[in-house]
What we know:
The chain is built from seven helices and seven strands. The protein is an alpha+beta fold. 24% of the residues are buried. Residues 152-284 form the GGDEF domain.
Amino acid sequence: xxxxxxxxxxxxxxxxGLALLVAAxxxxxxxxxxxxxWQRRQFSRALKDASLxxxxxxxxxxxxxxNCTFALSESQKPFPPDRQxxxxxxxxxxxxxxxxxxxxxxxxxxxxAVFQFEWIxxxxxxxxGLPDRSTFDLNLKHMLDxxxxxxxxxxxxxxxxxxxxxxxxxxxxxxxxQLLQKMIALVIRSARDTDLICQFDEQxxxxxxxxxxxxxxxxxxxxxxxxxxxxxFLLENGQQEVIVTASSxxxxxxxxxxPEELIQSARxxxxxAESLGRNRLIxx
Length: 284
C-alpha cells in the first residue's frame, strides 16, 4: 500500500515536472518565433500614426547610438575581418536609409537645384601630374560653397598606400614611385567623371566627390578601395607581383562645414583606418 502511494506521488511529480518543462520550452520557442513578429506588428500599427512611428524610430536609433558609444568606451578591440565586413555593410545600408528619411519632404516642397559646375584647373604636381595641394584647397572650397547654394552634400576621400615606407626600403624609390603611379591610375579609373583627384601630400591622394549622399560616397569609396585591392601590381621588370593595398578616410560635408573641418575629419578617419591594418576604409 505504501509502495503504491509512493509510486503515485512519484508519477504526479514527474508529470508535473514534464508539464512545467513543456510549458517553459513552448514559451521559449514562442518567444523566439513570435518576438520579431510581434515587434514588426507593433511597428506596422505605429506606422498608421506618423508621430507615433517617428518617435518610436528615433527612440530605437538613439538607443543604438548609446550602445555603440558604450561599446567604444568599454573595448577598443577591432572587429575580425568577417565581422568588419558585416559592420561595413550595415553601416552603408543604415547611412543610406537615414539619408533617405532625412531627405523626406512634403508634397509642396520645391525641386532641388541642379548641381553642375566646373572644377578650377590650376597648378599640377610635378611628381604625379595631378592637381597640387593649392588647387585642391581652391576646389574644395568651391565644391562646398556650390553645394551649400544647391543644398546638396559632398564628400572628401583621402587615400594612402599601405606600408609605403616598407616598400621604399624593399624595392627602392623608383619602383615604389611606379607602384604609386599605378595606384593613382586605378583611383582615377574608378572615380566618376565629375570627381576631382588631387595630390594632397607626398603620400596621400585626395578625391573630391561632389553631390553625393553619405551612402553614395561610401559606395564610391569602396569601389576605389576594391579596385586597388584586386589589381595585380607588377614591378618594372614585369616578373614579380607585389601586393598593394590602400587605407582611406572619408568625410561627408555638412551645411555648416568649412574646408578645414572637412580636411581634419578625413585625416582622423584615415589615421583610424591605418591603425586598424591594411585595406581599411573609415568614415567620419
